[in-house]
Amino acid sequence: MLILDLAAEHVPATLLRQQRLAALVGDRVLDVDLDSGVARFEAEGDDADPLTFDLQVIGSVNEAEQSFTWGWATGGDPRLVTGVAALRDYGVEHNVAELTEAIWHTDDVDPFLLAAIARGWCQADAMYRAPAPGGAVYLLLGDVDLPPATAPQVVQALTTGIALTPMDHRAAALSLFGDNGFSVTGMDDLVVASVDGQLVNVVYTEDGTIADVTVSRL
Q: How far is CA 58 from CA 69, 70, 72, 144, 164, in A?
């Protein structure tokens, strides 16, 4: 299924960017201004100016109805949904229902997976789940200077990502490494990425499933 290929390509990579975003802003959101297309976060330090990022809307979650609605289906400012509107068109072209049907029950599709795919496909710097009345809104963030990734963050993103939904483990690891520009070497049963002065070692079984992920020194 193409949706699972998209998950392998983008979900672990987005999880790593989520960790890097959390290290930068935590949950210190000040406001999400859908009129100006800006999200503001409190910066660390008493005298520091707020961190301001451009935003687009991925979609929203209604907790009472247990539903996720794509941003292009809500009737909001079309300038704030150009990314996911293009993703919808891609879904139409390739017959991917998850990207083209406006509303999904959260028992059928995990909103995080759709948001993570949208982040990667749209090549946004990060994705953020902002609280909203009755649920939450998923946002694409741009112009974010993310801190460098650490090897433990990479391990967590990869192992968590492949556990969320069935996906090609080899594609997931290589996409994660490529999204962050890590230097990669390896053979059929071992791929090694250089991350911040350490090595992330990914060991595969014969069928391409990840058997182990460890960190070692250069």
A: 9, 6, 8, 17, 20
